[in-house]
Amino acid sequence: MGVLGRLFGGKGKTQPPALAVVRRAGAEVMRVGDTFVISGRGLTVTGELLLPVRVDERLDVLHDGKERPLRVTGMLIDKEQVESAVPGTKVALMLSKWQLPTI
């Protein structure tokens, strides 16, 4: 083992991050490839869409054993921000807590 391995190599095993399941009305919306938690804000999930999705849409997300409604606050395709996407597209979805718009 090298110097960096000895300094930073943990002896404990870490669990890989759990993938989220993204649904709308019980139907799976996307085949999730990666899930990134943004502490106190929400999640970012990447993968291939199975159903059309648009920004500001409410989706049900199951992650770490909890299911909660989250809002699509942003969507990226190849580093370009878009408002909607069709099935078969590989996207990154930014999901945050569902809140009603304020007046």
From TrEMBL:
Gene3D superfamilies reported in the protein's UniProt record: Translation factors
- InterPro entries linked: Transl_B-barrel_sf
Could you tell me what this protein is called?
Answer: Uncharacterized protein
